[in-house]
Amino acid sequence: MYDLPPDLPRLRTLRTWYAMWLGRIDQAIKQAEEKQRAEELKAQRQVTATPDWVVELGIGQGAPAVDVHIGGCHMAGKRCRTISRDEAVQLISQGVNACTHCRPDTELGILE
Question: In terms of pTM, does the model score above 0.85?
């Protein structure tokens, strides 16, 4: 046999040592698989969690509405909140800007 020791006690020690490492490796594989599954689920939830409509808010007290966007619009800033279809129609009717990139007014059927 290759470079293994010939005596039984050392062979058993090696067997125990490698069994321990195999257990640690299996545990690390399990943790990596769980982490990968969690990341996939998180990505899937983010895709399905895109709202239909968002309003971009301004800066300052009361944070006035600035623009209405279709959910997922790349032009929407960080200060956004989800709104319903009715709120989007109402905001655009009240004079809040409709994003010129995603065109929520066209999607909502509001033609000026």
Answer: no
Contact 83, 55 (CB under 8 A): yes
2/59: higher pLDDT: 59
Same domain, 62 and 83: yes
Dump pLDDT digits (tens) for 40-95: 998 888 766 778 899 999 888 888 889 999 988 999 888 888 999 999 999 999 99
Domain that holds residue 18: 1-49
Q: Do the Cβ atoms of 58 and 79 come closer than 8 Å?
A: yes
pLDDT category, 107, cuts 50, 70, 90?
Answer: confident
43 in the same domain as 3: yes
Buried b (16+ CB within 10 A) or exposed e, 81-100: eebeeeebbebbeeebebbe
The pairing of beta strand 97-98 with beta strand 80-83: unpaired
Residue 78: count of CB within 10 angstroms of its CB: 6
H runs (alpha helix) in the chain: 8-48, 85-93, 104-108
